[in-house]
Write a structure and sequence with these properties.
Layout: H1 10-34, H2 41-45, H3 51-82, H4 90-100, H5 106-121, H6 127-158, H7 167-174
Helix pairs in contact: 1-3, 1-6, 1-7, 3-4, 3-5, 3-6, 5-6
C-alpha cells in the first residue's frame, strides 16, 4: 500500500530533510568526539582553563540546538503539511509527530529543549548541574538522530527519496550554511 502526499509540499519536505540529515551528520561527529572522553565533574571544572574543550562543548551545544530547532520548527511541520496536516502550535506539532510515530515521546522532546537551555546557561555557573545536563544530552542526541532517521524512512515510504537537493537549494531554503 502506498501512502499519498500533497505534491505541492514535496520540495519543502525534501529540502528540510536534506538539511536535517546534514545537521545530524555534524552533530554525530561532535557527539562522537566529545563523548569519547571521560566526562566527569573534574572534566567540567577544567572547561574554564581548557579552551579546546570549551570549543568542543560549544560546538556540541550549538549543533544540538540547531538540529532540535530544525526538527521542531521546520522538518516535522513540513512533513505534516506534506501529509495534509497543519498543526498550529509547537505542542500540536510534537503531538502529531508522536501520534504518527516520528517521535517516541513529545514530552522527551520538550525535555531536550529545556536541557539545551540548561547547557547554554549553566555552563559557567553550576558545574554539577552542567555535568548532569551534558550526560542527559548524550541520550537526547540519540533521540534527535532517531527522529531524523524515522523521517527519512517516511520519505522513502512516500517515494520522496530523490535527495538531489544540492547545496544551493538548501541555502535558498534555510539561508547560508553555518
Amino acid at each position: 500500500m502506498s501512502l499519498g502526499y500533497l505534491a505541492e509540499h514535496a520540495e519543502n519536505a525534501r529540502l528540510a530533510l536534506a538539511l536535517a540529515e546534514r545537521e545530524k551528520a555534524h552533530l554525530a561527529y561532535t557527539h562522537r568526539t566529545l563523548f569519547a572522553q571521560k566526562i566527569d565533574l573534574q572534566w567540567v571544572q577544567s572547561l574554564s582553563k581548557r579552551e579546546d574543550l570549551s570549543e568542543k562543548v560549544d560546538a556540541f551545544v550549538g549543533r544540538f540546538g540547531r538540529l532540535q530547532d530544525h526538527i521542531g520548527e521546520k522538518l516535522i511541520p513540513r512533513f505534516a503539511a506534506l501529509l495534509g496536516e497543519s498543526p498550529k502550535s509547537m505542542l500540536d506539532v510534537l503531538s502529531y509527530a508522536e501520534k504518527i510515530g516520528w517521535l517516541d515521546s513529545a514530552e522527551a522532546f520538550v525535555g531536550a529543549r529545556k536541557l539545551r537551555n540548561l547547557l547554554v546557561h549553566e555552563y559557567m555557573d553550576d558545574a554539577e548541574l552542567f555535568l548532569e545536563s551534558l550526560q542527559a544530552a548524550d541520550g537526547a542526541t540519540r533521540m534527535l538522530m532517531d527522529v531524523v532517521a524515522k523521517m527519512a524512512g517516511q520519505a522513502e515510504t512516500l517515494g520522496l527519496n530523490d535527495h538531489s537537493a544540492d547545496k544551493t537549494q538548501v541555502e535558498r531554503f534555510e539561508g547560508p550554511t553555518r
